[in-house]
Amino acid sequence: MYKHLLYLCAMDDCKSKYCGCLYYSANALARNMTKLADEEFAVTGLSSSYAFLLMTVCSKPGIQPKEISHHMQLTPSTVTRLIEKMEFKGYLRRQHTGRITEVFPTPLSEEINIQVKLAWKKLYLRYSDILGKENGEKLTESIYSANVKLE
Q: 92-97 and 100-105 as β-strands: parallel, antiparallel, unpaired?
């Protein structure tokens, strides 16, 4: 009954019997992209997740964690954990006003934000070089569109 699922991939260069599975292929791509991103962001001393959090907060000082969750497509609990670690390291600070929490950059994060943005640009150039600029942009659009539909 499920035999057809194992052989969906008609490509000659298929390295796995699961390459025709969207779940498998998307996760393999995510692992490879995370590796590339972490390599590029390593010059900042931050992983890619922390770098994107820093860019998000620097672009909108006083942003609330819920909005960060939306932009980064992460759960609120994950964002809270990331913020706490970045606050401990001196990159961010939280300000509580009643029930509202706002997140602000520190001078340290504003200083490193330039390096983070440069690393992000290098990441784009690196995967564009590998995939081709047009293919990378089409793939990004297609993946994002599929993600929106699956949400």
A: antiparallel
